[in-house]
């Protein structure tokens, strides 16, 4: 197809650079500088989609972010599929592949339209609630239908090959929008020396000046734009961001900007380049120069392709050299839109009529139109359009001065394009993001930003300032004010204001909904929100059904719910609701907008935080060895801990059985480096420990270690660990792996806010020490080969620690045990961790030194009934509930954290859940963790539950399964039987027993 | 995303460097053991949820690790004042 | 045994300097292999075989002596002791640092500093500080728990901007300034050491993540590894 709508000259496209692209499988040609929308219009593609509910053909309506219809699917390959791309914002590149997202099998020949006509009747406003909610079992079916019919596009089925990025910025002045106001503001702010960021969603700076015929300083506006951009580029502290949509304006002047770096170049980013970048900006001052969107008018069949917003028509003509039709009817409520008819005429095509809704309009542009012989019909409106896939004509009728009703006979005009303008709506979206409520202004017939707590200024169209001269003035003044407020004095001095001629304009008419000869409900459909097929009669119906709040009307009709967020239709919808409710617009209120301004790719949100970098992975100094020896890993906090070390052909249970037995029979080794370690120094260290642990610390001698439980003020256990007395005023605390940061913050909290007088410092040394635990009857023999420390059991006792050398490396060795075996925990500076670990293996072979991971550690400790805080506790368990009253000292002079909490009546009532051991009657059955105990598995539902299983394993050493769990009043129920009903209907029978399954006297660790 | 002045570092930092620690000025009772259950319950669990000025404790977790207080408007999210632990706020809600 | 748990000798002229802490020279001899946190990344080989030109240069300054010093600025015996042992004052202005030869000290918080010295000097310096300081203070050797990365080159700042929300502009981050902040999904002590160079102190267990991150974030500028 040739570019039948392309003008021979004019516009900002490069006719020497033709580009081939595909739309719905057909190949077309456009030019460098086109958007996908302008290229489609140049080729006369009228229908670019089918509507959501009624499946009506739809065409391109607008030329920017507000476009509701031309939302296409992009991507030449499966991996590069992108849904929800607005054709009006997608720059054309050679090889672009696009397709309509709704319409089965294609937009032109839509089988759905038959369904659609039925579906349309099935889908009145509130159809989600009325139709699709019941029966609930059908929801999945409905959802598929809605999702597909809604034309939301589809996500790729393959991994996105592109790289996305995030970058942080700080600036003095952030200017959003590089139209005349934004450019003027940026120029003044930049000259002051301030750090300025100027972002605009379009490929070129200039905004409306890119298609304007107005002059600045007596020359074409585009010249001024070029000069201004050239100067801005020279300022070292100015960052210019074209193709960058400011999508969110958050608290304290934080803005998120979505930059499309290579979307205009190719389907996939060139090698080494980032496809999209999220800029995270913290600005001292923000200038919103976001302009305004033109409102279309709401009239019968206003969705037929060929119906467009007036300024969009001018944009296509002046910026892209495309006239999207042959015969134009323009309907307007204001002077400005006359320009569209003038542009159309200048392009050499026929202006059938200008239909002005005002009775007696006067203004310079109107004079010009009349002077040029254009047919101006006043006091009238286009009440209805004819045509289905393209406009074929309009019905024009006189209306009354308020625009409430048709007052005379209808005449038919033949045309293929209807441009309409109901005035302009300031783009207040970003201002709304910060919580500011918009304010209605009758004089500009629109909402402007309301009061704000942000350091925010506004300039230009967003304020309802539309005359170019005033916009430039406002921009320059605002840029100066922002720079001065940010500390750049005298920014306002010597501003040479760009000058533009004032065009004399008459007042506009506040009209949104064009009356028809028939009542709204029976007139041809008058669309308000194209993307969601919300009509004027739908809104009236909603108000009749009692939805009086605009927020309710919005939710009931789904107005503004589409990917366009109602940029084009919301104000019209509110006006219709207001009129229907006999209220003014400010009385009716407005909905506000939330981030994001336009849809954003998941890639840009994720940035580099994906794949390997999705989350932090923490490694111990011995990690490489674990990898080389086939460890499988478990995530504990951010740490990658060896889970178990399977040998070839071993199942997980095989590996665990082997690791467990080797440890109990000879010696095993665990990498315990991940345990949190906190160095505590100061003369009050000991007293501090006494306050944060439940047990006594006053008499712990130098060279000794002690286990402690830490509770919250509520008396519930939240962490545990061994703390060692390194010297009189020096302790080393260990915490659980996952609790390290929390415990340190907890200690600091109490030190800084409650007991600042205590002389103590806390420092994390978790990463400083590599910790390897050798455990088992042969651990002493193994260690003896490598150390100068006297390991004699009479001098280096259980719960002692000693300093010396291990494998020639200075070490602290702690004789503590989490397995119940003779154990030594060797700590060396982490730089030597792997060296010492390897030395232990060199000497360990003869003892069958066996590495084990977290799973074997869990089994071994469960055999001994040792708890794991966070697994056997859940924030509702006191030390007493755990059967650990031996670890609670109420003789301490200070009321330690947790004491008062534990003294609450509820903590001392009978019948609390308590931790017990559980032995399944069938020794092979491992009761699933989380299983709930009941006394009688045959009782009716809901059963009375007694508590859940917290830890459960198969113990190869004992030859049967073991478990720990909470049981109501469990400590008094030893020997009784409880039942664990399972999801599959089976029931596991278990006996309540002591959680210490092995060596209850502790003889093995005490040799 | 707040921009919070750290009174110890002497400059504004991004919210992601901080942890919010809830209502400020909740002193641990001097003698918990003599508190009634009701008094202890108040200390442990009862917190204000004002619409407007609120005194909160924050910690500069990824920075200097110091706790401090912030007076913040819970409607506008404006931070009205930042002051150190042990200091009293100068901006307080009417009636406080 | 005895030498490390014995109470420190109390200096006769400083009766307040009773610091009963465990002291330990954590360094082994040259026969015992020490590995920095990024040892496994084999930066030496990458430096040899990898690209020689790029916008960003990365170097690990490994196996240095890192000492955390804690003390109150109201404690004159502490501040004076630091001056006596180091030959310069601890920087008390927030976010400042001092570099003297191969010793550098960073303000971390009002009562915390990070001193970095050549690895083999760590214990001696710790002992000198303990001997010179009085009152309540703490010194913790963290030499094994963290490492120093130096990021330099014309695009070093761009990589930092991707990695930290802190404002690294000249006007806010002059040479010598030091901040502890978020770095990607971990944290770093970031110090500007030159017009185009920054130093990052990264915790050991996060070093691999930081290394992967830096490779990724600097890919578009070209990353040069220096041994």
TrEMBL record, chain A:
Domain SoxA A3: 524-608
An example Gene Ontology biological process: tetrahydrofolate metabolic process
The keyword Oxidoreductase belongs to this UniProt entry's keyword annotation: yes
Span of domain Aminomethyltransferase C-terminal: 913-999
FAD/NAD(P)-binding domain sequence ranges: 172-428
InterPro entries in the cross-refs: 2Fe-2S-bd_N, FAD/NAD-bd_sf, FAD/NAD-binding_dom, GcvT/YgfZ/DmdA, GcvT/YgfZ_C, GcvT_C, GCVT_N, Sarcosine_oxidase_asu
Keyword field contains Oxidoreductase: yes
GO molecular function list: sarcosine oxidase activity; transaminase activity
UniProtKB keywords: Aminotransferase, Oxidoreductase, Transferase
GCVT N-terminal domain mapped to chain residues: 622-892
UniProt similarity note: Belongs to the GcvT family.
NCBIfam families registered for this protein in UniProt: soxA (TIGR01372)
Record-given protein name: Sarcosine oxidase subunit alpha
Originating organism: Marinobacterium nitratireducens
UniProtKB/TrEMBL annotation, chain B:
Signal peptide: none
GO biological process: tetrahydrofolate metabolic process
Entries under Gene3D superfamilies matching the protein: Folate-binding superfamily
UniProt cross-references to InterPro entries, sorted A to Z: SoxD, SoxD_sf
Domain of life: Bacteria
Single GO MF descriptor: sarcosine oxidase activity
Listed Pfam families: SoxD
Annotated NCBIfam families: soxD
Record protein name field: Sarcosine oxidase subunit delta
From TrEMBL, chain C:
NCBIfam families assigned: soxG (TIGR01375)
Entry's Gene Ontology molecular function annotations: sarcosine oxidase activity
Source organism: Marinobacterium nitratireducens
Protein name, as recorded: Sarcosine oxidase subunit gamma
InterPro entries linked: SoxG, SoxG_het, TrmE/GcvT-like
GO BP: any one term: sarcosine catabolic process
């Amino acid at each position: 197809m040739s570019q039948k709508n392309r003008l021979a000259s004019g516009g900002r496209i490069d006719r020497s650079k033709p580009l081939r692209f595909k739309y719905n499988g057909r190949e077309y040609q456009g030019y460098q500088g086109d958007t996908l929308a302008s290229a489609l219009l140049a080729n006369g593609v009228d229908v670019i989609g089918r509507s959501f509910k009624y499946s009506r053909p739809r065409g391109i309506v607008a030329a920017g972010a507000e476009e509701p219809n031309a939302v296409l699917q992009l991507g030449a390959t499966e991996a590069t599929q992108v849904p929800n791309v607005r054709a009006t914002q997608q720059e054309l590149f050679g090889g672009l592949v696009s397709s309509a997202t709704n319409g089965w099998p294609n937009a032109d020949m839509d089988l759905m339209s038959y369904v659609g006509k039925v579906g349309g009747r099935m889908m009145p406003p509130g159809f989600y609630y009325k139709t699709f909610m019941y029966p609930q079992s059908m929801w999945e079916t409905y959802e598929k239908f809605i999702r597909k019919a809604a034309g939301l596009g589809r996500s790729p089925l393959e991994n996105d090959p592109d790289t996305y990025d995030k970058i942080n910025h700080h600036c003095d002045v952030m200017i959003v929008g590089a139209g005349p106001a934004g450019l003027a503001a940026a120029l003044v702010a930049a000259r002051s020396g301030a750090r300025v960021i100027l972002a605009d969603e379009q490929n070129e700076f200039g905004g409306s000046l890119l298609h304007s015929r107005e002059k600045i300083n007596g020359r074409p506006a585009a010249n001024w734009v070029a000069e201004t951009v050239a100067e801005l580029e020279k300022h070292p502290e100015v960052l210019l961001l074209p193709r960058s949509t400011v999508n969110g304006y958050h608290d304290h002047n934080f803005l998120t900007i979505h930059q499309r770096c290579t979307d205009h170049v190719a389907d996939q980013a060139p090698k080494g380049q980032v496809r999209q970048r999220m800029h995270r900006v913290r600005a001292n001052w923000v200038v919103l120069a976001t302009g305004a969107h033109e409102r279309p008018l709401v009239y019968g069949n206003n969705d037929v392709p060929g119906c467009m917003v007036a300024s969009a028509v001018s944009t296509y003509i002046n910026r892209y050299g495309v006239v999207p039709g042959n015969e134009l009817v323009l309907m307007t409520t204001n002077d400005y839109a006359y320009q569209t008819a003038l542009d159309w005429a200048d392009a050499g095509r026929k202006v059938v009529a200008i239909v002005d809704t005002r009775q007696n309009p006067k203004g310079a542009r109107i004079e010009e139109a009349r002077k040029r012989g254009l047919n101006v019909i006043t006091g009238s409106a286009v009440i209805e359009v004819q045509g289905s896939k393209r406009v074929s004509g309009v019905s024009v009728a006189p209306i009354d001065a308020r625009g409430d009703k048709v007052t005379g006979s209808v005449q038919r005009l033949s045309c293929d394009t209807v441009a309409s303008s109901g005035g302009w709506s300031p783009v207040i979206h970003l201002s709304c993001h910060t919580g500011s409520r918009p304010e209605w202004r009758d004089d500009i017939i629109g909402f402007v930003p309301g009061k704000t707590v942000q350091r925010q200024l506004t300039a230009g169209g967003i304020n309802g300032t539309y005359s170019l001269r005033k916009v430039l003035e406002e921009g320059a003044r605002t840029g100066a004010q922002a720079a001065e407020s940010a500390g750049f004095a005298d920014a306002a001095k010597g501003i040479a204001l760009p000058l533009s001629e004032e065009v004399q304009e008459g007042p506009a008419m506040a009209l949104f909904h064009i009356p028809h000869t028939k009542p709204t409900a029976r007139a041809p459909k008058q669309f308000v929100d194209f993307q969601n097929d919300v009509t004027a009669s739908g809104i009236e119906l909603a108000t009749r059904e009692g939805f009086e709040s605009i927020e309710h009307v919005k939710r009931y009709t789904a107005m503004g719910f589409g990917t366009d967020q109602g940029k084009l239709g919301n104000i019209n919808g509110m006006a219709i609701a207001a009129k229907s409710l006999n209220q003014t617009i400010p009385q009716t209120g407005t909905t506000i907008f939330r981030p994001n301004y336009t849809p954003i790719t998941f890639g840009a949100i994720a940035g580099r935080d994906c794949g390997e970098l999705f989350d932090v992975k923490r490694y111990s100094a011995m990690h490489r060895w674990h990898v080389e020896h086939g460890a499988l890993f478990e995530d504990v906090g951010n740490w990658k801990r060896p889970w178990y070390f399977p040998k070839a052909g071993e199942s997980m249970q095989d590996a665990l059985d082997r690791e467990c037995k080797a440890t109990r029979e000879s010696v095993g080794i665990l990498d315990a480096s991940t345990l949190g370690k906190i160095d505590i120094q100061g003369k009050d260290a000991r007293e501090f420990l006494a306050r944060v642990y439940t047990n006594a610390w006053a008499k712990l001698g130098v060279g000794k270690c002690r286990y402690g439980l830490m509770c919250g003020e509520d008396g519930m256990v939240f962490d545990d660990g061994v703390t060692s007395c390194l010297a009189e005023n020096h302790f080393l605390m260990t915490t659980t792996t996952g609790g390290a940061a929390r415990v340190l913050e907890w200690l600091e909290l109490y030190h800084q806010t409650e007991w600042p007088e205590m002389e103590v410092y806390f420092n994390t040394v978790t990463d400083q020490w590599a910790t390897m635990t050798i455990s088992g009857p042969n651990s002493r023999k193994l260690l003896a080969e490598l150390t100068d420390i006297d390991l004699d059991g009479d001098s280096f006792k259980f719960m002692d620690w000693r300093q010396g050398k291990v494998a020639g490396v200075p070490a602290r060795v702690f004789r503590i045990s989490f397995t119940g075996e003779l154990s030594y925990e060797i700590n060396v500076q982490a730089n030597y961790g792997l060296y010492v670990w390897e030395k232990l293996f060199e000497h360990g072979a003869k003892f069958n030194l066996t590495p084990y991971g977290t799973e074997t550690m869990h089994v071994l400790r469960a055999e001994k009934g040792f708890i794991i805080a966070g697994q056997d506790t859940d924030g509702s368990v006191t030390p007493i509930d755990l059967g650990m009253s031996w670890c609670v000292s109420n003789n301490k002079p200070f009321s330690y954290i947790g004491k008062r909490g534990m003294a609450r009546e509820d903590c001392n009532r009978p019948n609390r859940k308590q931790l017990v051991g559980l032995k399944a009657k069938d020794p092979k059955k491992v009761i699933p963790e989380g299983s709930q105990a009941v006394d009688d598995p045959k009782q009716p539902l809901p059963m009375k539950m007694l508590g859940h299983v917290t830890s459960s394993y198969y113990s190869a050493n004992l030859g049967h399964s073991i478990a720990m769990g909470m049981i109501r009043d469990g400590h008094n129920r030893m020997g009784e039987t409880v039942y664990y009903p399972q999801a599959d209907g089976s029931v596991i029978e278990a006996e309540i027993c002591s959680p210490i399954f092995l060596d209850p006297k502790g003889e093995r660790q005490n040799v | 995303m707040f921009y919070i002045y750290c009174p110890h570092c002497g400059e504004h930092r991004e919210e992601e460097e901080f942890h919010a620690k809830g209502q400020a000025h909740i002193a641990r009772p001097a003698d918990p053991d003599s508190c009634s259950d009701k008094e202890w319950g108040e200390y442990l669990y009862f917190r204000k949820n004002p619409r407007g000025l609120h005194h909160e404790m924050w910690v500069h977790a990824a920075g200097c690790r110091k706790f401090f207080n912030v007076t913040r408007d819970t409607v506008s999210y404006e931070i009205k004042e930042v002051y150190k632990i042990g200091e009293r706020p100068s901006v307080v809600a009417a009636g406080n | 045994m005895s030498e490390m748990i014995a109470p420190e000798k109390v200096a006769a002229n400083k009766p307040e300097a009773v610091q009963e802490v465990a002291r330990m020279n954590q360094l082994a001899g040259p026969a015992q292999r020490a590995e920095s946190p990024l040892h496994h990344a084999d930066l030496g080989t990458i430096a040899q075989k990898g690209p020689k030109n790029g916008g960003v240069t990365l170097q690990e300054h490994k196996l240095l002596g890192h000492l955390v010093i804690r003390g109150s600025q109201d404690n004159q015996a502490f501040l004076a002791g630091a001056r006596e042992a180091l030959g310069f004052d601890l920087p008390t202005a927030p976010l400042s640092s001092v570099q003297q030869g191969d010793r550098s000290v960073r303000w971390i918080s009002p009562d915390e500093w990070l001193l970095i010295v050549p690895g083999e000097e760590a214990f001696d310096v710790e002992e000198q500080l303990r001997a010179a300081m009085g009152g309540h203070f703490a010194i913790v050797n963290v030499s094994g728990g963290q490492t120093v990365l130096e990021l330099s080159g014309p695009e070093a700042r761009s990589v930092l901007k991707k990695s930290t929300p802190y404002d690294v502009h000249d006007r806010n981050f002059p040479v010598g300034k030091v901040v502890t902040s978020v770095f990607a999904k971990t944290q770093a002590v970031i110090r500007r050491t030159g017009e185009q160079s920054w130093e990052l102190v990264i915790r050991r267990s996060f070093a691999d993540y930081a290394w992967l991150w830096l490779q990724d974030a600097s890919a578009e500028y070209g990353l040069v590894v220096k041994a």
